[in-house]
Write a structure and sequence with these properties.
alpha/beta; 7 strands; about 160 residues; Uracil-DNA Glycosylase, subunit E; 4-stranded parallel beta sheet
C-alpha cells in the first residue's frame, strides 16, 4: 500500500541548514511531526550539538529548529513501505525541494542516514545540483552508533552556522 508524506517541511527565510530524512516512521505519521518515536535519537542529538534543552512538544521542536536556522523535511513524498523499515521502501516519489530552496537561503544539505542519502542522490541531486553530506542515522535500528558517537558525527552541522 502506498503511504503519503503528510508532514509539511519546517523552514523559514533564515534557514541555512537542510536536514533530510527518508520517510516518516509510523510513529511520526501518527503524531504528525518528524522523529516522533521516543527511541529515535534525532532530538537528543540536535539538542546536544546545539547546546540547547531537549524539545518535547511539536511546537518546542519547531521553535528549536527555526531558532537554530535548520530546515527539516524528507526526501520521499510517497512510497510503498512496510511499517517504518527504510529497507522496504519501493516505488518512491520524491518531494519537490524547489519551493523550499527558493524561499530559504540553504547553505548546506545533510541526510539522516544512508537510505536518505541514497534516495537524495538518486532522485534529487540532479534536480538541486547540490551535494549532501551523509550523517549516521539517528534511528534506534542503527545500534552500532552510540549517542556519544552520533553527537560527535553530527557536530559538523554547526560548522554551517
Amino acid at each position: 500500500m502506498t503511504e503519503r508524506h503528510t508532514i509539511p517541511p519546517v523552514f523559514d527565510k533564515n534557514s541555512r541548514i537542510l536536514i533530510l530524512g527518508s520517510f516518516p516512521s509510523v510513529r511520526s505519521r501518527e503524531v504528525g511531526f518528524f522523529y516522533g518515536h521516543p527511541q529515535n535519537r534525532f532530538w537528543r542529538t540536535l539538542a546536544h550539538v546545539f547546546g540547547g534543552e531537549l524539545p518535547q512538544t511539536v511546537e518546542e521542536k519547531r521553535v528549536f529548529l527555526l531558532s537554530n536556522r535548520i530546515a527539516l523535511w524528507d526526501v520521499i513524498a510517497s512510497c510503498e513501505i512496510i511499517g517504518s523499515s527504510d529497507s522496504s521502501i519501493k516505488n518512491a516519489i520524491p518531494n519537490d525541494l524547489g519551493m523550499l530552496l527558493e524561499q530559504a537561503p540553504i547553505e548546506r544539505i545533510f541526510t539522516n542516514g544512508t537510505t536518505a542519502h541514497r534516495l537524495y542522490c538518486r532522485y534529487l541531486h540532479s534536480v538541486t545540483g547540490r551535494e549532501a553530506t551523509c550523517l549516521p542515522s539517528t534511528s534506534p535500528a542503527n545500534a552500532a552508533w552510540t549517542q556519544e558517537k552520533l553527537n560527535d558525527a553530527w557536530a559538523c552541522i554547526t560548522e554551517s552556522q
